[in-house]
Amino acid sequence: MSPTLGKYLILIGALVILAGLVVYFLGDKLHWLGRLPGDIRVEKENFRFYFPLTTMLLLSLLLNLLIVLIRKFFG
């Protein structure tokens, strides 16, 4: 295996740990995440459907920005 793969795995692990720390310490302050305007929620008597469209778009935008910054500064 190449050393580059090892660097990427370490970076991914650090990001997962960072995300875990954010959820652990700020979980009660992130209650709005998943309840943004544009998230689709349908609730009926025996049926529940939830599709967090806006939340997924926001997270995708943030992850893409993070990847671009990492490539620019470390690539």
TrEMBL record:
Coiled-coil regions listed in the entry: none
Keyword tags: Membrane, Transmembrane, Transmembrane helix
Segments crossing the lipid bilayer: 7-27, 47-70
Keyword Membrane assigned: yes
Designated name of the protein: DUF2905 domain-containing protein
Cited Pfam families: DUF2905 (PF11146)
